[in-house]
Specification:
The complex is a heterotrimer. Chain A is α/β, with parallel strands linked by helices. Chain A is 50% helix and 13% strand. Chain A folds into two domains: 70 residues; 254 residues, 3-Layer(aba) Sandwich (Rossmann fold), CATH 3.40.50. In chain A, the strands form two sheets. A six-stranded parallel β-sheet of chain A has the order 5-2-1-6-7-8, with helices on both faces. Chain A has a two-stranded parallel sheet with strand order 3-4. By secondary structure, chain B is mainly alpha-helical. Chain B contains six helices and no strands. In chain B, helix 1 packs across helix 6. Chain B is extended and about 65 Å long. Chain C folds into two domains: 113 residues, no CATH class; 54 residues, no CATH class. The N and C termini of chain C lie close together (10 Å). Classes of the chains: A alpha/beta, B mainly alpha, C mainly alpha. Chains in contact: A-B, A-C, B-C. Chains A and C meet through helix 2, helix 5, helix 8, helix 13 and helix 15 of A and helix 2, helix 5, helix 6, helix 7 and helix 8 of C.
C-alpha cells in the first residue's frame, strides 16, 4: 500500500466512526465529571447585574421564543433568569414568540417549581390564594406572612413561595407576535385578556402594577431564531424597553453589534452563556449549586478538542496525500 | 407513573432518531412523521385557545363586539385558497397583514438596523486609560465595517486603492467573522447533543444528576 | 378585484401604518389600537393554509397508496388527535389535574424528545464536515480556520487551562472584527428590508400575489 493510499483511506473513512467518536466524547466526561471552572464575560454580567438591581416592585418579561429543537441551549438561560427574578421577588411575565415556545415556558416553570430541582420554589396557583386577594393582600411580603400564618409551611428543600398572578403569569403565544409586542407597549391586557389557564389577567396584582411594557424593566428573550430581533425592533425602538438576549450559539456572533450599540444590555450566547449565568447565580449566593448548562461544559470542552483534532487530521491527510494538487477527491460514504 | 412512562417513551424516540446515524429505518421515519402532525396539532389547539375563543368568539357571542366580524370574515377568506375558482380572495387577508406589517415595520427597522448601527459605528478610537488592544479593536471595528461594506458594494469594480484595497481588507474581516460563527456553530450543535445525553443518562437511566 | 384591490389594500395599509408612527394623534392611535386587536385574529386563520395543505397532501398519499403512504397516518392521526384530546376529551392521565392529559403527553414526551434529538443530529454531521471539508487551502481559508479554532477553544473551560490568551483572543475576535463584519451585513440586510418594504407597499414587488388566479 503506497503512502498516498493511506491518506486517501483516512480521508474516506466511514463517517460512522466519526459519529461514534463524538458519541464517546459526549458521554465519558459526564461519567467522570471534571467540573472545570468557567470565567464570566461582560456580555453575561450585563444581564446579571441588571436583573440583580431589580426588586419586588419591578417586573421582567421572559420570552420563550424557541421550539424544542434548541431547548438544550435556551432552556437553561430562561431557567437561570427566572430563578434570579424569583429570588429577588421580581415579577415575571412569560410569553412565547413561536407556538411551541408556550410548551417550553410550561416546562421551565415546572422545572423551577419541581421538588426534585435543587432550590426549587413552591408554586401557589391563582385560585388557591383568592381569599387573600379579595382581602387586598397582594404585597409580596404581606402575602407571604399572611399565607404562612394560616398554617402553610414551606416544604423542605423549597427556597420560597411563588404566587401565580403576583410573582409570575404565563401569557403564552399569540400569532404575529411582533405586533403583540407593539400592542403590549400600550396595554398587556388587550393583547392577553387571559393567561394560559384561562384566568382573566386584568384582576391579577402583577398586571395592576405593570399594565404595559412601559411599566416593565427588562425583556429577556431566549431565542432559537431571529425572533429575538423583534423585541429590539418593536420593543426597544418603540418605547426604549431594555432588552437582553439569550440566543443559541449559531446566532450569537450575529448580535454583537447590538451589544456594542447598547440596544441590548447583554447576551447569553449558547450553553456557555447559560453556564456563565449559573456561575454568577452561585457565586452571588442566589442558588446553592450550578445547573445543567455548567454540567455540560466538560463535554463541550472534550467535544471541541475532538473536533479540532479532526480538523487537524483532515488537513494533514489532505496536504500530505497531495490532494490539494488534485481537483477531485474520490468520495465514499 | 405518568412521568416514568413519559420518560421511557421519550427515550425510545430519542434512540429511534439516533438510529438514523447508522442507517435510515422505519422507526426513524415514523418519528419524523409524528413530529409534523403533533406540532401542527398543538398549534391548532393553541390558536383556538388564545385567539379564536377569547379574542373572537367570546366577544362576538357576548354581543357587544360585532365589529370583530370583519377580521373574522377576512381571516376565513384564507379557506378560499383551496377552492380554485375563488382562490384569489385569499389574497385579501394576505394583503391586509402584509401591507400593514410592512408599514409598521418600516420606521422601526430603519432605527434598529440602520440608524442605531451607524451611530454606534462612530466611536472615539482612543480614550484615556484605554488598553492598546481596545484601541486596536476600535480601529479594526470602524475600518473593518467600512471595508466589509465596500466588499458588498458591487456597483463599482473592486479596483484601485479605495475599492480594491478596501474590498480586500473587507473580505479578511468577513472571514474572521465567519470563522467565529463557525466556532460558535460547533459549540451550539454540541450543546444540543449535550441536552439529549443529559436526558438519556440523567432523566432516563439516572446515571448522572 | 383580483389583483388591484389586494394591491390597494397593501398600499393604503402600508402608508397608513407608516404615517401613524410619525403622527401620534388620537385618531391615528385609535386606528392603530384597533388594528393591533384585529391583526392576530386575521393572522390566526393563516393556520388553515398549513393544516389544509398538509391534510390534502397526506390524504392524497394514502388514497393513491404512494410510496411510504402508511406513514401519512402518523401525520394525520396526531394532527387531529391533538385538538380532540385537548378540547373534547381533556381527561387527565395523572389523576384529577387539568394538565397531564393525552395532549400534554404527546407534546412533552414525543414531540419534545423527537425535535430536540433531530436538531442534535447536527452535532454528528458538523464533526464529519469539519474532518472532510475544513481545509486551509488558501490564506483566507486559513484565517477562517484559525479564527474558528481560537473561538472554539476560547469558549470552553479547557481554553482557560491552556492559556488565558486563548479566551481573550477569542473574545477580541468576537467583539471587534466579528462585530465589524456582522454590522456590515446587518446594514446590508437593513437596507434590503427597507427597499423590499417600499417595493411591496408601492406594488413594484408582486410575487406575493402568487398564482391564485389572474
Amino acid at each position: 500500500m503506497s503512502a498516498v493510499n493511506i491518506w486517501e483511506k483516512m480521508l474516506n473513512v466511514d463517517r460512522r466512526w466519526i459519529f461514534l467518536g463524538i458519541g464517546i466524547v459526549s458521554i465519558v466526561p459526564f461519567l467522570i465529571g471534571f467540573g472545570m471552572p468557567i470565567s464570566t464575560t461582560i456580555e453575561v454580567e450585563g444581564i446579571f447585574n441588571f436583573v440583580n438591581e431589580l426588586g419586588p416592585d419591578d417586573a421582567i418579561f421572559i420570552g420563550f421564543d424557541f421550539a424544542p429543537g434548541t431547548q438544550a441551549e435556551n432552556m437553561p438561560m430562561a431557567v437561570a433568569v427566572m430563578r434570579h427574578a424569583f429570588h429577588n421577588h421580581t415579577s415575571v411575565f412569560m410569553t412565547a414568540y413561536v407556538p411551541l415556545g408556550k410548551g417550553m415556558a410550561v416546562s421551565a416553570l415546572d422545572y423551577v417549581t419541581n421538588p426534585k430541582t435543587d432550590g426549587y420554589y413552591e408554586r401557589v396557583l391563582y385560585e388557591d390564594w383568592v381569599d387573600y386577594r379579595e382581602a387586598g393582600i397582594t404585597n409580596k411580603e404581606d402575602l407571604t406572612t399572611a399565607w404562612e400564618s394560616d398554617g402553610n409551611v414551606l416544604p423542605e428543600g423549597a427556597v420560597g413561595w411563588v404566587f401565580e398572578g403576583r410573582d409570575y403569569v404565563l401569557l403564552g403565544y399569540l400569532p404575529l407576535f411582533h405586533l403583540v409586542i407593539l400592542g403590549m407597549t400600550g396595554s398587556i391586557e388587550t393583547q392577553f385578556p387571559v393567561d394560559y389557564h384561562g384566568n382573566p389577567i386584568g384582576d391579577m396584582p402583577i398586571l395592576m402594577e405593570h399594565k404595559s411594557l412601559r411599566d416593565v424593566d427588562l425583556a429577556v428573550t431566549t431565542s432559537g431564531s431571529s425572533a429575538c430581533v423583534a423585541w429590539i425592533t418593536y420593543g426597544r425602538e418603540k418605547i426604549g424597553l431594555p432588552i437582553a438576549f439569550g440566543v443559541t450559539g449559531v446566532m450569537a456572533t450575529d448580535y454583537f453589534p447590538y451589544i456594542q450599540s447598547g440596544q441590548i444590555v447583554g447576551q447569553m450566547g449558547g450553553l456557555r452563556g447559560a453556564a456563565e449565568y449559573e456561575v454568577l447565580l452561585k457565586e452571588n449566593g442566589i442558588t446553592r449549586t450550578t445547573d445543567k448548562a455548567f454540567t455540560g461544559m466538560d463535554v463541550q470542552s472534550a467535544a471541541h478538542i475532538f473536533i479540532i483534532l479532526l480538523i487537524v487530521m483532515g488537513n494533514i491527510a489532505f496536504f500530505a496525500g497531495g490532494f490539494h494538487k488534485q481537483t477531485r477527491l474520490k468520495g465514499r460514504r | 407513573m405518568y412521568d416514568t412512562i413519559g420518560i421511557w417513551v421519550g427515550a425510545f424516540f430519542t434512540l429511534a432518531i439516533y438510529s438514523f446515524l447508522y442507517k435510515e429505518n422505519p422507526v426513524y421515519r415514523l418519528a419524523e412523521h409524528l413530529v409534523v402532525g403533533i406540532s401542527l396539532g398543538y398549534t391548532m389547539v393553541l390558536i383556538y385557545n388564545t385567539v379564536i375563543l377569547p379574542k373572537l368568539l367570546e366577544p362576538l357571542f357576548a354581543g357587544n363586539h360585532w365589529i370583530l366580524i370583519i377580521p373574522g370574515l377576512l381571516g376565513l377568506l384564507y379557506i378560499t385558497r383551496f377552492i380554485p375558482s375563488i382562490a384569489w380572495l385569499s389574497r385579501y387577508p394576505i394583503a391586509f397583514i402584509m401591507g400593514t406589517g410592512m408599514g409598521i415595520g418600516f420606521p422601526l427597522t430603519m432605527k434598529a438596523y440602520v440608524l442605531r448601527q451607524l451611530e454606534a459605528a462612530m466611536v472615539p478610537l482612543y480614550e484615556s486609560g484605554m488598553p492598546w488592544y481596545e484601541v486596536f479593536g476600535n480601529i479594526v471595528m470602524i475600518f473593518g465595517t467600512l471595508a466589509a461594506l465596500i466588499y458588498f458594494f458591487f456597483s463599482k469594480p473592486h479596483k484601485g486603492l479605495f475599492f480594491g484595497t478596501g474590498s480586500k481588507i473587507g473580505i479578511w474581516v468577513i472571514m474572521l467573522g465567519f470563522g467565529a460563527t463557525f466556532g460558535f456553530t460547533v459549540m451550539g450543535r454540541i450543546s444540543l447533543l449535550i441536552g439529549r445525553i443529559q436526558y438519556l443518562l440523567g432523566d432516563w437511566l439516572h446515571l448522572i444528576e | 378585484m383580483k389583483r388591484t384591490v389586494p394591491l390597494m389594500i397593501v398600499m393604503v395599509g402600508g402608508i397608513l401604518m407608516m404615517v401613524q408612527y410619525f403622527i401620534p394623534h388620537q385618531y391615528s392611535q385609535v386606528i392603530f389600537n384597533n388594528y393591533l386587536e384585529w391583526a392576530p385574529i386575521v393572522g390566526a386563520f393563516a393556520l388553515i393554509l398549513g393544516v389544509g395543505s398538509l391534510t390534502r397532501l397526506h390524504t392524497h398519499k394514502i388514497r393513491r397508496k404512494a410510496q411510504n403512504w402508511q406513514y401519512s397516518w402518523a401525520v394525520l392521526i396526531p394532527l387531529f388527535g391533538m385538538p380532540l384530546f385537548a378540547l373534547i376529551i381533556p381527561q387527565s392521565l395523572g389523576g384529577g389535574s387539568d394538565v397531564h392529559g393525552v395532549h400534554d403527553f404527546l407534546f412533552m414526551h414525543i414531540q419534545v424528545p423527537i425535535q430536540s434529538t433531530m436538531f442534535s443530529l447536527l452535532a454528528f454531521y458538523i464533526a464529519s464536515a469539519a474532518f472532510r471539508a475544513f481545509r486551509a487551502k488558501s490564506a483566507l481559508a486559513t484565517i477562517l480556520l484559525l479564527a474558528a479554532v481560537i473561538v472554539m477553544l476560547g469558549q470552553v473551560p479547557i481554553g482557560d487551562v491552556l492559556g488565558k490568551w486563548l479566551p481573550n483572543t477569542g473574545l477580541w475576535i468576537l467583539r471587534y472584527p466579528n462585530l465589524a463584519a456582522k454590522r456590515a451585513i446587518m446594514l446590508g440586510v437593513g437596507f434590503g428590508m427597507l427597499a423590499t418594504n417600499l417595493k411591496i407597499i408601492f406594488g413594484v414587488e408582486r410575487n406575493w400575489l402568487g398564482g391564485a388566479g389572474k
